[in-house]
Structure to design on (501 residues):
Protein backbone atom coordinates (compact mmCIF):
# COMPACT_ATOMS: atom_id res chain seq x y z
CA UNK A 1 0.00 0.00 0.00
CA UNK A 2 1.12 3.49 -0.78
CA UNK A 3 0.60 4.59 2.84
CA UNK A 4 3.08 2.05 4.15
CA UNK A 5 5.78 3.47 1.93
CA UNK A 6 5.24 6.97 3.34
CA UNK A 7 5.52 5.60 6.89
CA UNK A 8 8.82 3.86 6.45
CA UNK A 9 10.26 6.86 4.60
CA UNK A 10 9.31 9.77 6.88
CA UNK A 11 10.82 10.75 10.21
CA UNK A 12 8.12 12.37 12.37
CA UNK A 13 8.67 15.94 13.52
CA UNK A 14 9.44 16.42 17.24
CA UNK A 15 5.87 17.59 17.89
CA UNK A 16 4.37 14.54 16.27
CA UNK A 17 6.87 12.24 17.95
CA UNK A 18 5.63 13.44 21.33
CA UNK A 19 1.98 12.82 20.41
CA UNK A 20 2.88 9.43 18.98
CA UNK A 21 4.47 8.41 22.27
CA UNK A 22 1.29 9.34 24.15
CA UNK A 23 -0.99 7.54 21.68
CA UNK A 24 1.09 4.36 21.38
CA UNK A 25 -1.17 2.24 23.64
CA UNK A 26 -4.30 3.15 21.59
CA UNK A 27 -6.40 0.05 20.85
CA UNK A 28 -8.59 1.78 18.22
CA UNK A 29 -11.78 1.09 20.16
CA UNK A 30 -13.41 4.35 19.00
CA UNK A 31 -14.65 5.48 22.41
CA UNK A 32 -13.10 8.90 21.66
CA UNK A 33 -15.07 9.26 18.42
CA UNK A 34 -18.28 8.14 20.09
CA UNK A 35 -17.79 10.62 22.94
CA UNK A 36 -16.77 13.66 20.90
CA UNK A 37 -19.47 16.37 20.65
CA UNK A 38 -17.79 17.84 17.55
CA UNK A 39 -17.25 14.59 15.66
CA UNK A 40 -20.18 15.39 13.33
CA UNK A 41 -18.22 18.33 11.89
CA UNK A 42 -14.83 16.62 11.57
CA UNK A 43 -13.35 15.35 8.30
CA UNK A 44 -11.55 12.56 10.20
CA UNK A 45 -12.94 10.96 13.35
CA UNK A 46 -10.63 11.19 16.37
CA UNK A 47 -10.04 7.42 16.21
CA UNK A 48 -8.83 7.70 12.60
CA UNK A 49 -6.67 10.67 13.47
CA UNK A 50 -4.91 8.69 16.22
CA UNK A 51 -4.32 5.82 13.81
CA UNK A 52 -2.75 8.24 11.36
CA UNK A 53 -0.51 9.59 14.10
CA UNK A 54 0.69 6.06 14.78
CA UNK A 55 1.23 5.53 11.05
CA UNK A 56 3.18 8.79 10.83
CA UNK A 57 0.99 10.31 8.10
CA UNK A 58 2.02 13.80 9.01
CA UNK A 59 0.91 15.67 5.89
CA UNK A 60 -2.60 14.26 5.99
CA UNK A 61 -2.90 15.00 9.70
CA UNK A 62 -2.11 18.67 9.25
CA UNK A 63 -4.38 18.94 6.21
CA UNK A 64 -7.27 17.83 8.41
CA UNK A 65 -9.45 20.23 10.44
CA UNK A 66 -10.18 17.59 13.05
CA UNK A 67 -7.88 18.83 15.82
CA UNK A 68 -9.02 22.45 15.37
CA UNK A 69 -12.54 21.20 16.11
CA UNK A 70 -11.57 19.92 19.55
CA UNK A 71 -13.37 22.16 22.07
CA UNK A 72 -11.47 20.72 25.08
CA UNK A 73 -14.54 19.13 26.69
CA UNK A 74 -12.36 16.25 27.99
CA UNK A 75 -15.01 13.54 27.37
CA UNK A 76 -12.52 11.42 25.41
CA UNK A 77 -9.82 11.86 28.05
CA UNK A 78 -12.28 10.88 30.77
CA UNK A 79 -13.58 7.81 28.94
CA UNK A 80 -10.53 6.43 27.12
CA UNK A 81 -10.16 2.86 28.43
CA UNK A 82 -6.38 3.18 28.05
CA UNK A 83 -6.31 6.43 30.03
CA UNK A 84 -4.57 8.35 27.25
CA UNK A 85 -4.25 12.17 27.39
CA UNK A 86 -6.27 12.68 24.21
CA UNK A 87 -7.36 16.29 24.77
CA UNK A 88 -3.75 17.20 25.48
CA UNK A 89 -2.72 15.41 22.30
CA UNK A 90 -5.26 17.47 20.32
CA UNK A 91 -3.74 20.62 21.88
CA UNK A 92 -0.25 19.46 20.89
CA UNK A 93 -1.43 19.15 17.28
CA UNK A 94 -2.96 22.66 17.46
CA UNK A 95 0.39 23.96 18.75
CA UNK A 96 2.33 22.17 16.03
CA UNK A 97 0.06 23.58 13.32
CA UNK A 98 0.23 27.14 14.73
CA UNK A 99 3.84 27.38 13.57
CA UNK A 100 3.12 26.04 10.10
CA UNK A 101 0.90 28.86 8.83
CA UNK A 102 -1.45 26.52 6.99
CA UNK A 103 -4.42 28.05 5.18
CA UNK A 104 -6.88 25.50 6.58
CA UNK A 105 -6.18 26.66 10.12
CA UNK A 106 -5.64 30.34 9.45
CA UNK A 107 -8.81 31.54 11.16
CA UNK A 108 -8.23 29.58 14.39
CA UNK A 109 -4.59 30.62 14.56
CA UNK A 110 -5.44 34.26 14.00
CA UNK A 111 -8.13 34.12 16.68
CA UNK A 112 -5.81 32.63 19.30
CA UNK A 113 -2.89 34.79 18.18
CA UNK A 114 -4.93 37.99 18.57
CA UNK A 115 -6.00 36.90 22.03
CA UNK A 116 -2.39 36.32 23.09
CA UNK A 117 -1.29 39.67 21.65
CA UNK A 118 -3.73 41.47 23.93
CA UNK A 119 -2.62 39.41 26.93
CA UNK A 120 1.02 40.14 26.21
CA UNK A 121 0.36 43.89 26.16
CA UNK A 122 -1.82 44.24 29.22
CA UNK A 123 -1.40 41.04 31.22
CA UNK A 124 -5.15 40.56 30.92
CA UNK A 125 -7.14 40.17 27.73
CA UNK A 126 -9.14 43.20 26.67
CA UNK A 127 -12.04 41.61 24.85
CA UNK A 128 -12.73 44.41 22.35
CA UNK A 129 -9.06 44.94 21.52
CA UNK A 130 -8.64 41.24 20.91
CA UNK A 131 -11.70 41.06 18.65
CA UNK A 132 -10.51 44.17 16.76
CA UNK A 133 -7.12 42.53 16.15
CA UNK A 134 -8.86 39.35 15.01
CA UNK A 135 -11.14 41.14 12.53
CA UNK A 136 -8.29 43.30 11.23
CA UNK A 137 -6.21 40.19 10.65
CA UNK A 138 -8.99 38.33 8.86
CA UNK A 139 -9.34 41.13 6.33
CA UNK A 140 -12.94 40.06 5.74
CA UNK A 141 -15.15 43.15 6.07
CA UNK A 142 -18.35 41.10 6.30
CA UNK A 143 -17.39 38.78 9.13
CA UNK A 144 -17.44 41.42 11.92
CA UNK A 145 -21.08 42.09 11.03
CA UNK A 146 -22.01 38.70 12.45
CA UNK A 147 -20.72 39.87 15.82
CA UNK A 148 -21.73 43.55 15.63
CA UNK A 149 -25.14 43.12 17.36
CA UNK A 150 -23.50 41.29 20.27
CA UNK A 151 -20.69 43.85 20.54
CA UNK A 152 -23.22 46.67 20.63
CA UNK A 153 -25.29 44.93 23.30
CA UNK A 154 -22.22 44.47 25.48
CA UNK A 155 -21.21 48.11 25.00
CA UNK A 156 -24.67 49.41 25.86
CA UNK A 157 -24.52 47.40 29.09
CA UNK A 158 -21.12 48.90 29.86
CA UNK A 159 -19.40 45.51 29.90
CA UNK A 160 -16.87 46.32 27.19
CA UNK A 161 -15.69 49.50 25.48
CA UNK A 162 -14.28 50.20 22.04
CA UNK A 163 -10.54 49.91 22.00
CA UNK A 164 -7.92 50.84 19.48
CA UNK A 165 -5.17 48.22 19.74
CA UNK A 166 -2.32 49.81 21.68
CA UNK A 167 1.35 49.76 20.75
CA UNK A 168 4.62 49.95 22.63
CA UNK A 169 6.04 47.62 25.26
CA UNK A 170 3.84 45.06 26.94
CA UNK A 171 3.41 43.97 30.55
CA UNK A 172 4.31 40.34 29.85
CA UNK A 173 7.04 40.93 27.23
CA UNK A 174 9.72 39.29 29.39
CA UNK A 175 7.68 36.13 29.91
CA UNK A 176 6.66 35.85 26.25
CA UNK A 177 10.22 36.48 25.05
CA UNK A 178 11.59 33.81 27.38
CA UNK A 179 9.01 31.28 26.13
CA UNK A 180 9.99 32.07 22.55
CA UNK A 181 13.67 31.72 23.34
CA UNK A 182 13.14 28.34 25.01
CA UNK A 183 10.94 27.05 22.18
CA UNK A 184 13.35 28.01 19.42
CA UNK A 185 15.74 25.10 18.92
CA UNK A 186 19.35 26.23 19.32
CA UNK A 187 21.51 25.86 16.20
CA UNK A 188 23.50 22.64 16.16
CA UNK A 189 21.59 21.08 19.06
CA UNK A 190 20.97 17.35 19.17
CA UNK A 191 17.59 16.73 17.49
CA UNK A 192 16.87 13.88 19.90
CA UNK A 193 17.71 15.83 23.00
CA UNK A 194 14.53 17.98 23.18
CA UNK B 1 -11.40 30.22 56.04
CA UNK B 2 -9.91 32.83 53.74
CA UNK B 3 -9.59 32.24 50.00
CA UNK B 4 -7.40 33.89 47.41
CA UNK B 5 -9.84 35.17 44.79
CA UNK B 6 -8.80 34.91 41.13
CA UNK B 7 -11.53 36.56 39.01
CA UNK B 8 -9.97 36.14 35.55
CA UNK B 9 -10.32 38.46 32.55
CA UNK B 10 -13.94 37.72 31.58
CA UNK B 11 -15.17 38.75 35.02
CA UNK B 12 -13.79 42.24 34.38
CA UNK B 13 -15.61 42.49 31.03
CA UNK B 14 -18.38 40.47 29.46
CA UNK B 15 -19.01 38.52 32.69
CA UNK B 16 -19.04 41.47 35.12
CA UNK B 17 -22.28 40.29 36.67
CA UNK B 18 -20.68 36.94 37.57
CA UNK B 19 -18.08 38.84 39.58
CA UNK B 20 -20.66 41.14 41.23
CA UNK B 21 -22.96 38.30 42.16
CA UNK B 22 -20.15 36.07 43.42
CA UNK B 23 -18.75 38.77 45.70
CA UNK B 24 -22.18 39.85 46.96
CA UNK B 25 -23.31 36.28 47.66
CA UNK B 26 -20.05 35.32 49.38
CA UNK B 27 -20.45 38.40 51.60
CA UNK B 28 -23.86 37.16 52.67
CA UNK B 29 -22.39 33.75 53.42
CA UNK B 30 -19.57 35.49 55.32
CA UNK B 31 -16.89 33.89 53.20
CA UNK B 32 -13.69 35.87 53.46
CA UNK B 33 -11.44 36.25 50.47
CA UNK B 34 -8.65 38.47 49.18
CA UNK B 35 -8.24 39.23 45.48
CA UNK B 36 -4.90 38.07 44.11
CA UNK B 37 -2.77 41.16 43.62
CA UNK B 38 -1.36 41.74 40.10
CA UNK B 39 -3.07 38.64 38.62
CA UNK B 40 -2.79 38.10 34.87
CA UNK B 41 -4.55 36.01 32.21
CA UNK B 42 -4.54 32.22 32.68
CA UNK B 43 -4.04 31.68 28.93
CA UNK B 44 -7.69 30.73 28.31
CA UNK B 45 -7.98 28.24 25.44
CA UNK B 46 -5.67 30.41 23.35
CA UNK B 47 -2.30 29.65 24.96
CA UNK B 48 -2.93 25.92 24.77
CA UNK B 49 -3.57 26.21 21.04
CA UNK B 50 -0.38 28.21 20.45
CA UNK B 51 2.43 27.08 22.69
CA UNK B 52 2.79 24.38 25.32
CA UNK B 53 5.27 26.40 27.36
CA UNK B 54 3.06 29.50 27.33
CA UNK B 55 0.10 27.41 28.47
CA UNK B 56 2.19 26.34 31.46
CA UNK B 57 3.83 29.69 32.24
CA UNK B 58 0.75 31.94 32.19
CA UNK B 59 -1.16 30.01 34.88
CA UNK B 60 2.07 29.39 36.82
CA UNK B 61 2.72 33.12 37.13
CA UNK B 62 -0.53 33.45 39.06
CA UNK B 63 0.07 30.33 41.13
CA UNK B 64 3.50 31.70 42.09
CA UNK B 65 1.96 35.03 43.14
CA UNK B 66 -0.68 33.27 45.25
CA UNK B 67 1.82 30.88 46.81
CA UNK B 68 3.95 33.83 47.91
CA UNK B 69 1.10 36.10 49.04
CA UNK B 70 -0.84 33.52 51.04
CA UNK B 71 0.83 30.14 51.40
CA UNK B 72 -1.61 27.34 52.12
CA UNK B 73 -4.69 29.32 51.07
CA UNK B 74 -7.09 27.81 48.53
CA UNK B 75 -7.38 29.73 45.26
CA UNK B 76 -11.05 30.38 44.50
CA UNK B 77 -11.86 30.58 40.78
CA UNK B 78 -15.35 31.26 39.34
CA UNK B 79 -14.45 30.75 35.64
CA UNK B 80 -14.22 27.10 34.59
CA UNK B 81 -11.55 27.73 31.94
CA UNK B 82 -9.33 29.65 34.39
CA UNK B 83 -9.97 26.98 37.00
CA UNK B 84 -8.85 24.16 34.75
CA UNK B 85 -5.78 26.02 33.45
CA UNK B 86 -4.59 26.85 36.97
CA UNK B 87 -5.41 23.40 38.30
CA UNK B 88 -3.71 21.58 35.41
CA UNK B 89 -0.47 23.46 35.99
CA UNK B 90 -0.65 22.99 39.77
CA UNK B 91 -1.21 19.27 39.19
CA UNK B 92 1.61 18.90 36.65
CA UNK B 93 4.03 20.92 38.77
CA UNK B 94 3.46 18.66 41.75
CA UNK B 95 3.69 15.45 39.70
CA UNK B 96 6.42 16.25 37.15
CA UNK B 97 9.66 17.81 38.48
CA UNK B 98 10.90 18.32 34.91
CA UNK B 99 7.82 20.41 34.01
CA UNK B 100 8.25 22.49 37.17
CA UNK B 101 11.86 23.11 36.18
CA UNK B 102 10.77 24.34 32.74
CA UNK B 103 8.12 26.58 34.29
CA UNK B 104 10.64 28.15 36.63
CA UNK B 105 13.05 28.77 33.76
CA UNK B 106 10.33 30.98 32.23
CA UNK B 107 9.20 32.58 35.49
CA UNK B 108 12.79 33.62 36.19
CA UNK B 109 12.28 36.24 33.46
CA UNK B 110 9.59 37.75 35.69
CA UNK B 111 11.76 37.36 38.81
CA UNK B 112 9.43 34.70 40.20
CA UNK B 113 9.67 31.16 41.56
CA UNK B 114 6.93 28.55 41.84
CA UNK B 115 7.27 25.66 44.26
CA UNK B 116 4.25 23.64 43.17
CA UNK B 117 2.18 24.00 46.35
CA UNK B 118 -1.28 25.17 45.32
CA UNK B 119 -4.82 24.16 45.95
CA UNK B 120 -7.07 25.44 43.15
CA UNK B 121 -10.83 25.34 43.77
CA UNK B 122 -13.76 26.07 41.47
CA UNK B 123 -16.45 28.35 42.91
CA UNK B 124 -19.01 25.53 42.60
CA UNK B 125 -16.72 23.21 44.56
CA UNK B 126 -16.51 25.77 47.38
CA UNK B 127 -20.27 26.39 47.32
CA UNK B 128 -21.02 22.68 47.45
CA UNK B 129 -18.34 21.25 49.75
CA UNK B 130 -17.26 24.14 51.98
CA UNK B 131 -20.66 25.80 52.36
CA UNK B 132 -23.33 23.33 51.24
CA UNK B 133 -27.11 23.46 51.32
CA UNK B 134 -27.12 23.17 55.13
CA UNK B 135 -25.37 26.50 55.59
CA UNK B 136 -27.32 28.08 52.76
CA UNK B 137 -30.81 27.14 54.02
CA UNK B 138 -30.88 29.47 57.08
CA UNK B 139 -29.84 32.42 54.88
CA UNK B 140 -32.73 32.03 52.43
CA UNK B 141 -35.10 34.99 52.73
CA UNK B 142 -36.88 34.69 49.38
CA UNK B 143 -38.25 31.27 48.48
CA UNK B 144 -38.07 30.89 44.70
CA UNK B 145 -41.28 28.87 44.53
CA UNK B 146 -42.66 28.04 41.12
CA UNK B 147 -39.35 28.35 39.28
CA UNK B 148 -37.93 25.35 37.41
CA UNK B 149 -34.15 25.73 37.21
CA UNK B 150 -31.97 23.70 34.82
CA UNK B 151 -28.47 23.19 36.27
CA UNK B 152 -25.80 23.51 33.59
CA UNK B 153 -22.22 22.59 34.51
CA UNK B 154 -20.40 22.58 31.19
CA UNK B 155 -17.13 20.73 30.80
CA UNK B 156 -14.11 22.10 32.51
CA UNK B 157 -15.27 22.27 36.13
CA UNK B 158 -16.10 18.54 35.85
CA UNK B 159 -13.45 17.09 33.53
CA UNK B 160 -10.77 15.82 33.45
CA UNK B 161 -10.47 16.29 37.23
CA UNK B 162 -13.43 14.68 38.98
CA UNK B 163 -13.10 16.65 42.21
CA UNK B 164 -16.54 17.38 43.63
CA UNK B 165 -19.08 15.72 41.33
CA UNK B 166 -19.73 12.91 38.86
CA UNK B 167 -18.22 14.16 35.57
CA UNK B 168 -20.80 12.17 33.54
CA UNK B 169 -23.94 12.82 35.58
CA UNK B 170 -23.39 15.78 37.91
CA UNK B 171 -25.90 16.55 40.68
CA UNK B 172 -24.05 18.94 42.99
CA UNK B 173 -26.20 21.99 42.11
CA UNK B 174 -29.46 20.16 42.88
CA UNK B 175 -29.29 20.61 46.65
CA UNK B 176 -28.47 24.33 46.32
CA UNK B 177 -31.37 24.94 43.92
CA UNK B 178 -33.75 23.01 46.14
CA UNK B 179 -32.58 24.97 49.20
CA UNK B 180 -33.70 28.15 47.36
CA UNK B 181 -37.24 26.76 47.14
CA UNK B 182 -36.98 26.26 43.38
CA UNK B 183 -37.48 23.02 41.45
CA UNK B 184 -34.65 21.25 39.68
CA UNK B 185 -35.48 20.84 35.99
CA UNK B 186 -34.67 17.25 35.05
CA UNK B 187 -32.49 16.92 31.97
CA UNK B 188 -29.33 15.21 30.80
CA UNK B 189 -27.56 18.22 29.23
CA UNK B 190 -25.86 19.45 32.42
CA UNK B 191 -22.34 18.18 31.60
CA UNK B 192 -22.47 18.62 27.78
CA UNK B 193 -20.25 20.98 25.76
CA UNK B 194 -21.60 24.47 24.92
CA UNK B 195 -19.38 24.83 21.84
CA UNK B 196 -16.70 26.84 23.64
CA UNK B 197 -14.70 29.14 21.33
CA UNK B 198 -16.19 27.54 18.20
CA UNK B 199 -18.77 30.31 18.41
CA UNK B 200 -16.02 32.66 17.17
CA UNK B 201 -14.14 30.50 14.70
CA UNK B 202 -16.65 27.85 13.56
CA UNK B 203 -19.99 29.40 14.35
CA UNK B 204 -22.15 26.71 12.74
CA UNK B 205 -20.65 24.07 15.03
CA UNK B 206 -21.05 26.31 18.08
CA UNK B 207 -24.68 27.04 17.23
CA UNK B 208 -25.43 23.33 16.86
CA UNK B 209 -24.05 22.49 20.32
CA UNK B 210 -25.58 25.47 22.13
CA UNK B 211 -28.86 24.94 20.24
CA UNK B 212 -29.18 21.35 21.47
CA UNK B 213 -28.77 22.50 25.08
CA UNK B 214 -31.30 25.33 24.75
CA UNK B 215 -33.83 23.04 23.06
CA UNK B 216 -33.54 20.47 25.83
CA UNK B 217 -34.26 23.18 28.41
CA UNK B 218 -37.73 23.81 26.99
CA UNK B 219 -40.08 24.00 29.94
CA UNK B 220 -37.49 25.33 32.38
CA UNK B 221 -37.66 28.93 33.65
CA UNK B 222 -33.91 29.42 33.62
CA UNK B 223 -30.60 27.70 33.01
CA UNK B 224 -27.94 28.41 35.63
CA UNK B 225 -24.27 28.37 34.65
CA UNK B 226 -20.88 28.47 36.38
CA UNK B 227 -18.66 29.63 33.50
CA UNK B 228 -18.55 32.89 31.48
CA UNK B 229 -18.06 31.10 28.15
CA UNK B 230 -21.01 28.74 28.70
CA UNK B 231 -23.11 31.70 29.81
CA UNK B 232 -22.25 33.74 26.69
CA UNK B 233 -22.84 30.86 24.28
CA UNK B 234 -26.24 30.11 25.77
CA UNK B 235 -27.47 33.70 26.22
CA UNK B 236 -26.12 35.66 23.24
CA UNK B 237 -27.21 33.61 20.23
CA UNK B 238 -30.80 32.66 21.05
CA UNK B 239 -32.29 34.62 18.11
CA UNK B 240 -29.85 33.05 15.63
CA UNK B 241 -30.55 29.61 17.08
CA UNK B 242 -34.34 30.20 16.90
CA UNK B 243 -34.08 31.02 13.20
CA UNK B 244 -31.85 28.02 12.59
CA UNK B 245 -34.03 25.54 14.47
CA UNK B 246 -37.27 27.00 13.17
CA UNK B 247 -38.73 27.21 16.68
CA UNK B 248 -38.47 30.08 19.16
CA UNK B 249 -35.85 29.88 21.90
CA UNK B 250 -36.37 32.37 24.70
CA UNK B 251 -35.05 31.37 28.09
CA UNK B 252 -33.34 33.10 31.01
CA UNK B 253 -29.65 32.29 31.39
CA UNK B 254 -28.01 33.30 34.66
CA UNK B 255 -25.03 32.53 36.84
CA UNK B 256 -25.56 30.26 39.84
CA UNK B 257 -24.50 32.91 42.41
CA UNK B 258 -27.08 35.28 40.86
CA UNK B 259 -29.80 32.75 41.64
CA UNK B 260 -28.44 32.07 45.13
CA UNK B 261 -28.07 35.82 45.70
CA UNK B 262 -31.72 36.45 44.78
CA UNK B 263 -32.80 33.69 47.16
CA UNK B 264 -30.75 35.17 49.99
CA UNK B 265 -32.50 38.51 49.57
CA UNK B 266 -30.25 40.41 47.17
CA UNK B 267 -32.02 42.67 44.69
CA UNK B 268 -31.94 42.03 40.94
CA UNK B 269 -29.65 45.04 40.63
CA UNK B 270 -27.28 43.78 43.32
CA UNK B 271 -26.73 40.48 41.49
CA UNK B 272 -26.31 42.38 38.20
CA UNK B 273 -29.34 40.82 36.52
CA UNK B 274 -29.69 43.91 34.30
CA UNK B 275 -26.32 43.00 32.74
CA UNK B 276 -27.47 39.56 31.55
CA UNK B 277 -28.33 39.24 27.87
CA UNK B 278 -31.23 36.84 28.27
CA UNK B 279 -33.72 37.40 31.10
CA UNK B 280 -37.36 36.89 30.15
CA UNK B 281 -40.25 39.01 31.38
CA UNK B 282 -41.93 35.83 32.55
CA UNK B 283 -38.96 35.03 34.76
CA UNK B 284 -38.99 38.50 36.29
CA UNK B 285 -42.72 38.27 37.04
CA UNK B 286 -42.32 34.90 38.71
CA UNK B 287 -39.46 36.35 40.74
CA UNK B 288 -41.59 39.28 41.85
CA UNK B 289 -44.29 36.88 43.05
CA UNK B 290 -41.80 35.79 45.71
CA UNK B 291 -40.88 38.95 47.65
CA UNK B 292 -37.87 38.85 49.92
CA UNK B 293 -38.63 39.00 53.62
CA UNK B 294 -35.48 40.87 54.66
CA UNK B 295 -34.37 42.54 51.47
CA UNK B 296 -33.55 45.97 52.89
CA UNK B 297 -30.92 44.99 55.42
CA UNK B 298 -29.23 42.63 53.00
CA UNK B 299 -29.27 45.24 50.26
CA UNK B 300 -27.03 47.57 52.23
CA UNK B 301 -24.50 44.79 52.78
CA UNK B 302 -24.28 44.05 49.09
CA UNK B 303 -24.10 47.66 47.96
CA UNK B 304 -20.92 47.83 50.00
CA UNK B 305 -19.68 44.70 48.26
CA UNK B 306 -20.35 45.78 44.72
CA UNK B 307 -19.82 49.48 45.54
Amino acid sequence: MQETITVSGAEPSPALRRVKEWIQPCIQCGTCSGSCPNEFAMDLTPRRLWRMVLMGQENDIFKSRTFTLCSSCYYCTLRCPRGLPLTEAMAALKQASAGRGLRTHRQSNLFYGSFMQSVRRHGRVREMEFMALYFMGLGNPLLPLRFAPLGLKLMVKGKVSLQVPSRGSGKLDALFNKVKEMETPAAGSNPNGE
Amino acid sequence: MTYIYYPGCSLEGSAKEYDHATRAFLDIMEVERVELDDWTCCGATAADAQSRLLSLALPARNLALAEKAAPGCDILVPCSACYLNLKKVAHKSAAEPETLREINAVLAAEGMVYHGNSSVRHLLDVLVRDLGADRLAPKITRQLHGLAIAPYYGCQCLRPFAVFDDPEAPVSMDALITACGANVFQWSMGPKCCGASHMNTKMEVGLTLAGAILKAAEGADAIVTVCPMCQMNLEAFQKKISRRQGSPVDITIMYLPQLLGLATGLSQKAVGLDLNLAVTQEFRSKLEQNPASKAVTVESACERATG
